[in-house]
Give the backbone structure.
Amino acid sequence: MKLLTHNLLSSHVRGVGPRGFPLRLQATEVRISPVEFNPDFVARMIPKVEWAALLEAADTVPKEPIQGYEHDERFLRKMHHVLLEVDVLEGTLQCPESGRLFPISRGIPNMLLSDEETET
Amino acid sequence: MAAVPAGRRSGPAAGARFFCTAGRGLEPFLIREVQPRQAGTWVEYISGKVFFTTCSDLNMLKKLKSAERLFLLIKKQLPFNVSLSKGKIFNEMQRLTNDDPESWLNAISIWKNLLELDAKKVKLSQKNANPLKRKVGENDIIAKKLKTAQMQEIQESKECQMEKQIEEETPEQGSFTTKRDKSQELQNDVAEAVDTHNQNDLTFRVSCRCSGAIAKTFTAQEVGRVIGIALMKQFGWKADLRNPNLEIFIHLSDIYSVVGIPVFRVPLASRAYIKTAGLRSTIAWAMASLAEIKAGAVVLDPMCGLGTILLEAAKEWPDVYYVGADVSDSQLLGACDNLKAAGLKDKIELLKVSVIELPLPPESVDVIISDIPFGKKFKLGKDIKHIIQEMERVLRVGGTIVLLLSKDHHRRLKGCEESSVPLNSKGSRTDKPGSTECLNPEEKAAVPEPASSSFAASNQECLDRMPPFGSLVPVECYRVSLGKTDALIYKYKKSHSPGQ
């Protein structure tokens, strides 16, 4: 699971709503795998990123996107590394409101809820 | 009509004539693919085949994604007159080979040239590639000089033992399905073609298909034999049913008599980069082609199964963030395998989540493409309406949804259990009570129909009868064949936030 994905996921435990974000990430096994750098792609992803959530998940991130980031290769490369090259293979995601833990196994987060937990 | 002979090594200068078979319903997609490449050269659709002329080499033609198979055209003519005696018709068949032997020899030499040229290009690009190779099953460094997608395909298919599971065939397909490595096939094709410098040494096999009135009088084997014997007499070739240099494909129908040479042994529809296909790759690609995928988009398949749709999309539109989701461990495992085998592990993320409870914020996804499971194997415990509601929630305004729906899904979404509304378009059948089918109009006699009108009619009907779903407005509809059954591709756009 890449950090870009973590950034997109929110908790959907019953009654939690917007407070279910961001999911707290605990990684027990991480792999750094090189990914071909595409500055255009990274630049397009930046506006979609919830920066506070990203800061919580990764500590080597600048506090906010810098002015003119679209053309700043160093910044883009840093973001590329953080968002796309860090792969969480094993760990957990925790709903900040309910405390519910969702496991990550083989890089795939399991966010299936049991019948009691679902809202409908 | 003869195919135009190839000029120099650089490729057929004046353009060679080809045709592609396509699954029923996919012809508009194939025409769209073929047309821009040819920029004004002849494209014609007749009853499951798209005929066209092009100067392109195999590099371009290999990339046709909605075609089943690609053939070089040797002959296309009016159907045989079935009112003649059997003997007379046999004579007519022999004339296919005897009247114009030049056209046969030309086509064969074009075929050889195309394959040789292509094999050279493949070798050249392999030499240029960075020596760092991709190992299957590990996330190694991707060779930076892998420029073309094709290059990547060849690399990966050489390195991993690919056994493609080929889906059940459409009726249009010939009988050659092999499970061998695609690039290896290409090498084999060239070796076979080049081996026969002296055309008298050629070994061949005839594969024949008869449909319509002529099928009532002749079996495919009979026709194959007659043509085969005529070819042996005309050119001195030897028949080899098991491993011939050359395959001849013949289709006799009520609409035409067509003779061609399959350019590759392996159908275009069988992808080198897909290890285990779920949905037919041609349909998966067609769905992705409707979805308006743009660079930097977030694309979700919330019922991804083995990931076929995402694989097809990621190969064509790489600069996009893809997410696949499924509830089944075995499917996700299969999808993971597929991603690795295709070298797309970095482009597609997987989640184990349920489509009716997506852990995604509202309006966070640009595109959703999904094949909604149906059939006896799947017990869709969840109501299709709930599924689409959840998709609607996570889709941003202006976003696109492309779904593959079974007729059952279709019925439920239209909100009617039974309908005996007769189709009102010209020439279409009226509905039987209880069925809500809108069928393609029956094929009319000999006159080739212009591509757009026959589809526009029935697909437009499907579209008109489908109401909007909340803020999702249906904009396009295509009925496609899945082999044993038909299904519908629906495209929706989200017009506004619900509640506004």
